[in-house]
Amino acid sequence: MTEPSREELLRSRDELARRVEADRTLRSIAAQITGLRDQEALLQDVVEHARRLTGSDGAHLTLRIDGGEDLQPYVMSGASDDESRAILRALRLEPGSGTNALAAELGEPVWTSDFRVDPRLPHGPGYGEAAGRLRMIAIAAVPMHGPNREVIGTLAISYEEAREFSQQQIELLQAFADQAAIAVLNSRLYEQLRASEERYRFIVERAPDLLFTTDAAGAFSFLSDSAEALTGWRPDELLAQPFTRIVHPGSLAEVRQRWATMLADPSREGRLRFLQLRRDGRANSVESSARAILVDGRFVGVQGIIRDVTEFDRVEQDRRLQAAELAVAQERAHLARELHDSVTQALFSMTLQSSALDRLLERGDTAEARERLVALAGLQRDALAEMRVLVFALRPPSLEKDGLVQALRSYASALAARSGLAIDVLADDHLERPAPGIEDGLYRIAQEGLHNAMKHAGAQRATVLLDEADGELRLEVSDDGVGFDEGAVASENLGIAGMRARAGLIGGLLSIGAREGGGTSVRVSVPVQRAQ
After folding, report:
1. 318 pairs with which residues across the strands?
2. Is the pLDDT of residue 465 over 90?
3. Closest Cα to residue 338, out of 406, 394, 278?
């Protein structure tokens, strides 16, 4: 076996040293990529190292233009003057325009010992002139791959004279290209992240709501700038302070209970209305929505939003007052209709009977006068009965004394006797009484529903159902009448607006629909509130 010559040993030593330096350089570039350095500066380092460690005369890196097929030189090394650099950077390398374009198209390394005579490399407009001016004769280009193996650019080295490339040079060039691709992708992700942060920062800084996070102990770790407007404290004054710092004493127990609930079940989102304490001692009515922050399944804090609902509460109170006024107006209109339809007609008939009685007495017709007196007495009794029904409807004594169930039974009995409408009241006599406001609201809705059944539906039978389930008190008034259409439901004559207003006034939801088998059903449900 022949021993290697001194020249071969020196070449092996130089090649080993070059590989060691290349490995160290690649590690350094990888560390810089992790640190998210400026993209252009980092890629400039890549081409400088690629030129130096491959021993080439020049190197350059191209990137796809706007995600298209064309390439454009981005950074370069070895160009002798600013004019030459400007020429190279102005190039737009279209598909089929040279070594870089072919490497990008094939997705693999491409090299030529002399591009001027290589038949594989058609030259795009201006490419040969630029390559000639920059004295790029021997050129090797390798692709830069994205995460899905798509080509995002190329890295190339060149010599000013014709020569061959070694396999080691191509492999080293590809290693640098892989690092450059990672740098480009990281830079783009970083730019997207920065832009996203800018957008969210804009929203957070200008949102009127208070955005916050806490640590696992409940101390604030972040507050948006709106904290000062809402609480009177600057965000930095509340950092590391417990969240209870901004909770009014009147709401402290409830807020602490909600915190304990979130600790016990971090998967649940917490929503709560409470009184928030301001720096000057005043209280805001606020609504908070918060959820746990989990890291590897471990509770590490809470993130949430606090919204000032003081103005909303004021508007809601105004709406309730307007609803109450509307309900009163509806009640007055209903009373006026009843007076006109019943009592007023009876009084008019009594007036006619009295006039006739006077004429009969003047003629001495006592027998006819006695009959008129009997008829007049009957009209008086009817009018008195009508007035008693109306007075009972305005404020039945049994509602305050005996509660909603008994009041509904009494009203249904009186209305049935007066109108002939058969009415069934299905309710538990031992049902626990709700708050007075809810009793009154449900009673009025039942009144209006039965009135509609009697006056407009042509019903023979109506049913009033009152029960309690799932924390809600539910009332349903149904009949077997002619039903309704959308136009009728919207009509003020049916008192629908008044019923909706009363339901809203007590925090309930009202729905009206066709009953199965014919007729109409009015349903209202309201959260249970007990009488104090």
Report:
1. none
2. yes
3. 394
Q: Say how far apart CA 531 and CA 403 lie, in whole Å.
A: 10
Maximum mean pLDDT: which of 87-101, 115-129, 454-468: 454-468
- Rounded to whole angstroms, how far apart are CA atoms 530 and 474? 14
pLDDT in tens, 330-374: 666 666 666 655 566 666 666 766 777 777 777 777 777 777 777
- 106 residue type, one letter: L
**Residue that is written with structure tokens 């020569």 in the block:** 163
Per-residue pLDDT, 205: 59
pLDDT bin (cut points 50, 70, 90) of residue 112 is very high
Whole-number Cα distances in Å, 307 to 193, 244, 382: 28, 16, 59
Burial of 395 (0-12, 13-18, 19+ CB in 10 A): exposed
- What one-character-per-residue DSSP string does 73-92 give? EEEEE---SHHHHHHHHT--
Q: What's the confidence (pLDDT) of residue 395? A: 58
Residue pair 308/285 in contact by the 8 Å Cβ criterion: yes
State mean pLDDT over 116-140: 71
Cβ atoms of 43 and 183 within 8 Å: the answer is: yes
Q: What is the pTM of this model?
A: 0.41
Handedness of CA 398, 400, 401, 405 (dihedral sign): positive
- In terms of DSSP bridges, do strands 472-479 and 58-64 run parallel, antiparallel, or are they unpaired? unpaired
In our burial notation (b when 16+ CB lie closer than 10 A, e otherwise), range 66-99 reads: eeeebbbbbbbbbbeeeebbebbeebebbeebbb
Tokens describing residue 198: 């800018």
Alpha carbon distance 175, 169 (integer Å): 10
**β pairing state of 110-112 and 138-145:** antiparallel
pLDDT greater at residue 253 or residue 492: 253
Question: At residue 486, does pLDDT exceed 50?
Answer: no
- For residue 271, the surrounding DSSP H or E stretch is strand 270-277
Q: Which of 411, 410, 512, 408 is nearest to 465 (CA)?
A: 408
Does residue 238 carry a pLDDT above 90? yes
Kindly tell me the sign of the dihedral angle through the C-alpha atoms of 21, 23, 29, 31. Answer: negative
Q: Please tell me the predicted confidence (pLDDT) of residue 440.
A: 83
Q: Is the pLDDT at 489 greater than 80, yes or no?
A: no
DSSP per-residue codes, 41-84: HHHHHHHHHHHHHHT-SEEEEEEESTTSS-EEEEEEE---SHHH
What is the pLDDT at residue 220? 93
Quote the CA–CA distance of 251 and 275 in Å, as a whole number. 6
SS3 sequence of 308-350: ECHHHHHHHHHHHHHHHHHHHHHHHHHHHHHHHHHHHHHHHHH
Distance between CA 33 and CA 175 in Å, rounded?
A: 14
What is the rounded CA–CA span in Å between residue 50 and residue 140?
Answer: 12
Task: Quote the strand ranges of 338-440, DSSP E.
Answer: 422-427
How many helices and strands, by DSSP H and E, does the chain display? 17, 15
